[in-house]
TrEMBL record, chains A, B:
Source species of the chain: Halalkalibacillus sediminis
Gene3D superfamilies with a match to the protein in the record: N-(1-d-carboxylethyl)-l-norvaline Dehydrogenase, domain 2, NAD(P)-binding Rossmann-like Domain
Record domain Ketopantoate reductase C-terminal: where: 169-285
One of the record's GO cellular component terms: cytoplasm
Keywords: NADP, Oxidoreductase, Pantothenate biosynthesis
EC number, UniProt record: 1.1.1.169
Name this polypeptide is given: 2-dehydropantoate 2-reductase
Pathway assigned to this chain's UniProt record: Cofactor biosynthesis; (R)-pantothenate biosynthesis; (R)-pantoate from 3-methyl-2-oxobutanoate: step 2/2
């Protein structure tokens, strides 16, 4: 299958490399510098090289599947170009949070939604390190794309060391990921520590638990189940730094608005823990 | 008056220097190195030198007044020696928080309690910089020491550029200081920023307000009044770093237990903001 991956950050490069074993992958990037080096060197993932083509996003051509690995904060500017793409080409969106859900409704193409739990570290413009085992969960965006997601896409990109799991319930899949991110990302970003510290530092663990409970109240999820899931992801990616750690380091805008900010927006009750942690990250952003 | 100041941290040195203009001050310290340099150089406060004697705390002799400027975390080990001091010598305690209140009940000497709002920066073992105008509030510990506090001590150590103000209500004086400290200290310590950032960073200001409101609920203080007081102190000491900033920097135990920890202990309701900020500082302590 011809697969176009939009965005070559940590997740984009990781997905491109993994899929390149059985598919014809083109990685669409913004900067010519990155395009050149990926074309020259391929993508290096854990000391192995994967041959992947790279093109500028402006030159997006038709593919059998597009996987959109842009961050929420970069999605807006890409939507117009995506909307102009071939009307039959399915698009799989792999974002954190839920802010994209409303935005991509306007697209006429068949839409799939996924979440990615792998811990991946971006080393350079063409190198990534897989630091935490995870899964890609995939769901249909609407009833009309269910067969596409379940029968035609999920089994094709699924692999032994790259499990893609179809989920029937889109929202609960997104909600689970949202809670996990809204706990692990801001805590690690605040202290610039790796994900494992969320469990190994007893005070951070206490905070993580309180954030989990509050998140579950808003989204009507089971606390015990979610607290297990949060711990699971923190363990599996314990030596990895969350994307928010890097955003703070680089002075980029973080995804806090689509995570804790989203929870605060949709909640009709007070969420003091999420509110405080939200303001702490926003405070750090403008320092 | 012969005044002994116990502890030569920022506040101890500042108080010693200020009082040395009209009084015979001896600064009691733990380390011989600091004793020697204060005896040789005096105390330097904002480029002026104040002649102050220094002795080791173990050699505590009788004075007309003792001012105890030790931190809460260093108070326990000094209490025995203090209890053996002359039974008539009044002691003025200048600590943050309220943890000392229970401890010093065992002393038979006349006790006064004070709070210090000056922003003072310790530069070295004998140098301090006065960075924020403030006041020393002074109160009687018990009915029996009221006349002593109001008539005999407060007017004597009061000075034009060193105002000492007698307060009738001990607990409200301590409570006000506790709220101010429990807001400004942990926020500044978390980000290692000066006090002014609590107001100039809009997100930190939001957090400060929420912490103030929660603190007032526990201690039954007026929110509007306290929010004004918090802002006042943050403004007056805007270029100063709180003691907790230095404790974190030096890897010392912070006074979080006697501040936010104290509020959490005495409250019969949830204080999510103070609880989260408490755990954030404890998390930072053990990093």
């Amino acid at each position: 299958m011809k697969i176009g991956v939009i965005g070559a950050g940590a997740i984009g490069m990781f997905v491109s490399a993994k899929l390149s074993k059985s598919h014809d992958v083109t990685c669409y990037v913004r900067r010519d510098e990155q395009r050149l080096i990926i074309n020259d060197e391929g993508i290096r993932l854990n000391d192995q090289t994967y041959r992947v083509a790279s093109k500028l996003f402006d030159n997006l051509k038709n593919e059998d599947l597009l996987i959109i690995c842009l961050k929420q904060t970069h999605l807006d500017s890409a939507l117009k170009k995506l909307s102009e793409n071939h009307p039959d080409t399915p698009m799989l969106f792999l974002q954190n949070g839920l802010s994209h859900i409303d935005k991509i409704k306007s697209l006429s193409q068949p839409i799939l939604i996924g979440t990615c739990e792998h811990g991946v570290l971006r080393v350079s413009d063409y190198e990534v390190r897989h630091k935490g085992e995870g899964r890609i969960y995939l769901s249909a965006f609407e009833e009309t794309t269910k067969e596409l997601a379940k029968e035609r896409i999920s089994p094709i990109i699924d692999g032994d060391d790259f499990p893609v799991i179809f989920k029937d319930d889109l929202m609960s899949m997104l909600y689970e990921k949202l809670v996990i991110n809204s706990v692990i990302n801001p805590i690690t970003a605040l202290f610039q520590v790796e994900n494992g510290k969320v469990l190994s530092n007893s005070h951070l663990k206490e905070i993580a638990y309180n954030l989990t409970v509050e998140g579950c109240e808003v989204l009507n999820l089971d606390e015990n189940h979610m607290w297990k899931r949060v711990q699971q992801v923190a363990e599996h990616t314990s030596s990895n730094f969350s994307s928010m750690v890097y955003d703070i380091q680089k002075g980029n805008e973080t995804e806090i608005e689509s995570m804790n900010g989203y929870l605060l927006n949709i909640s009709d009750q007070e969420l003091p823990n999420h509110e405080l942690i939200y303001h702490l990250i926003k405070a750090k952003e403008i320092m």
